[in-house]
Design brief:
mainly alpha, globular
Length: about 190
């Protein structure tokens, strides 16, 4: 029976010994959730580009990767490390486009004029409503929601987003409340 190898060990195996199979395991574990996280932030064509850049960064920085120990609070576990790189690549993309990734005022206006819920209900696309509600979250709440959906713990999100543990918990609470309100507005 084969035991599950930690992400950190796989990254070390790849970075220090060039174990391509270890990298492939990491890639297979994270490709779908990572792509989904990026896709929430941009169009699919741009998403593909950023997705590639993230993995290129992981590959190029593999030999410098360190496994955190109890004394090293500033070194992230692999998942936090991966999503930190991802957030930076997303920010780089939006900077190169000459715009910010999200405009909070625009999002509030969009939330008030959400697409016709009757049409969505008629088509049976509750999933679309949920995705739309997520898109309309302010960027800080959207980030924590997507990271939480990707399986990150609050402490890891705190590292990735460079925010306090309590701030992350608050953002999560606000995100869920706003999602619930959006859902109720369209299905209540």
């Amino acid at each position: 029976m084969k035991s599950l190898v930690s992400d950190e060990q796989l990254m070390l195996d790849y970075g220090q010994r060039g174990d391509v199979a270890a990298f492939d395991q990491l890639y297979q574990r994270y490709r779908k959730p990572l792509f989904g996280f990026i896709r929430q932030k941009m169009a699919e064509a741009a998403c593909n580009e950023v997705f590639q850049e993230v993995w290129e960064s992981i590959i190029s920085q593999a030999s410098q990767y360190k496994v955190p120990n109890d004394d090293e609070q500033n070194i992230a576990h692999f998942r936090g490390y991966l999503y930190t790189i991802t957030r930076r690549r997303i920010a780089d993309y939006w900077r190169s486009q000459g715009k910010q990734s999200h405009n909070d005022e625009q999002e509030v206006d969009e939330l008030e004029s959400l697409s016709n819920p009757e049409k969505e209900h008629q088509q049976g696309l509750d999933k679309q409503v949920i995705l739309r509600c997520v898109e309309l979250l302010p960027s800080k709440q959207q980030d924590v929601f997507m990271l939480k959906q990707s399986g990150l713990a609050v402490a890891e999100m705190s590292q990735v987003l460079d925010a306090s543990f309590d701030a992350i918990k608050s953002r999560i609470r606000v995100a869920y409340q706003q999602l619930r309100e959006c859902w109720e507005k369209h299905h209540g």
